Amino acid sequence: MFKKIVKISLIILILTSIIFVVGCSNSTGKVDNPKIRLVEVTHSIFYTPQYVALEMGFFKEEGLDVELTTAYGGDKTMTALLSGNADIILVGTETTIYVYNQNPKDPAINFAQLTQTDGSFLVSRKPIKNFSWDMLKGKVLLGQRKGGMPEMVSEYVQHINGIEPKVDNEIIQNVDYKNLSSAFVSGTGDFVQLFEPVASKLEAERKGYIVASFGESSGKLPYTVYITKQSMIDNNPEIIQKFTNAIYKAQLWVHRNTLEEIANVIAPQFPDLDREIMLQVLNRYRSQGSWAMDPILDIEEYQNLEKVMEYSGELKQRVPYEAIVNTDFAKNAINTKEQ
Questions:
Q1: Domains, the chain, ranges and CATH?
Q2: Full 3-state SS string of 255-285
């Protein structure tokens, strides 16, 4: 019953947003104001190339004034786009599939990929020297929101490692994303699924211990992607191109520079984070290949996403890759840089 209520609530939220957008004529027209409202799903070192683009002035070099805000949740992030409160969002591709299956007049389109693996880690209450996934059997896992990429990847990784989620173990999903670490510290669950730098902060405080990477175990996915409405692409292709150009510049910069240099650049985005923890987190994401080398969302990664969603029961109807993915801007950005 809980699953049905959550699913129905998400559908109602999306439909309400679509209806609202139809009534807002200015939300799909030509953008005259150079300020681009960018909404990210969460604020994490996982999105390092984006912060490099902001701090290094790559958006400004393209003539864009990008205003970044954080929504803290995939459903909230997509709603910001559909309601006209965002021009571009950074969130998982699965959200565009949910929207497309509601037959919108103005679908959400993936146009540039930022990360290509899951960015979350499994944190244990106690250190485990030789962790294996079967250790989750009979345990309580403090998980993520139903229907979101982190939770779907978690369940898929457990499945391919011989565990039947919610049968062989218990997964708690009624804790808000921002409160997961505090709930775990207060005694909820044997394990928790967390993003960085929260996971490493807990480890530094000896309140939790990273024992496994969901990104290493699940393979490549279009995990976080830049998304906008089709009307924005139709009416403002030059803005989407400039935005993609800036992201590609940042991707190249991140892959060509040291962790110390990267940390220096993104430090203003994480003013309260210890530098040693920052370097540790950067190393984790770089070593597991989390940051995409370029902004192209490959069809192979999309098909891997479909497998993950199908296992979780969230893919009710397949959506053609071409219907919600536009690689033209990514390819143009690469070709322009190479000339």
A1: 2-117+221-338 (3.40.190.10), 120-218 (3.40.190.10)
A2: HHCCHHHHHHHHHHHCCCCCHHHHHHHHHHH
Q: How far, in Å, CA of 226 to CA of 297, rounded? A: 10
Q: How confident is the model at residue 145 (pLDDT cuts 50, 70, 90)?
A: confident
Segment 39-59 mean pLDDT? 97
Taking a C-beta distance cutoff of 8 angstroms, is the pair 198, 63 a contact?
A: no
Strands 120-124 and 209-213, by their bridges, are antiparallel
> Kind of pairing, strands 108-115 and 224-229?
antiparallel
**Residue of 257, 241, 333, 322 lying closest to 296 (CA atoms):** 333
pTM for the full predicted model: 0.87
Number of H helices, E strands in the chain: 16, 10
Neighbours of 277 (CB within 10 A): 18
> How sure is the predictor about 285, in pLDDT bands with cuts at 50, 70 and 90?
very high
